[in-house]
Amino acid sequence: MHCPFCHFTDSRVIDSRTADDGTAIRRRRQCPECNRRFTTVETTSLSVVKRSGANEPFSRSKVLVGVRKACQGRPVTDDDLAKLAQKVEEAIRAQGSAEVEAHEVGLAVLGPLRELDEIAYLRFASVYQAFASLEDFESAITLLRAEREPTGKEPDPADRLSG
What we know:
3-stranded mixed sheet, about 160 residues, elongated
């Protein structure tokens, strides 16, 4: 590791600790040339294979950009989005593969987004799954309702007004 101050080509590790819930290692280093200290963070590399076949490093910020568009105008905070992006990354890393298809990243977004905001979920799913008709939206809404109501029975609107 090159020293960021004097650019000496070596450094000594003084301390190592796990970070980010065990997904990274934080190392405190010292340069033997200028004696200054600096910190590095090591993580395992995770690359995404795009439809074109190109590889690029996984990026939480790209997940955030896509999800933020779906959440526009919804009561979702930046903190909520950051937690969602972390869940997505954790789910992908849990697969145990150094490479993941871009399609799998989108699938990993759908579950946490549905829990966060159903409208944002429908917006994201409509683009991600290329909804082509009203029937596609109706099918997705029917599935959401079925998951919300274990009996499959729709609640009576009058019950909501009386409570």
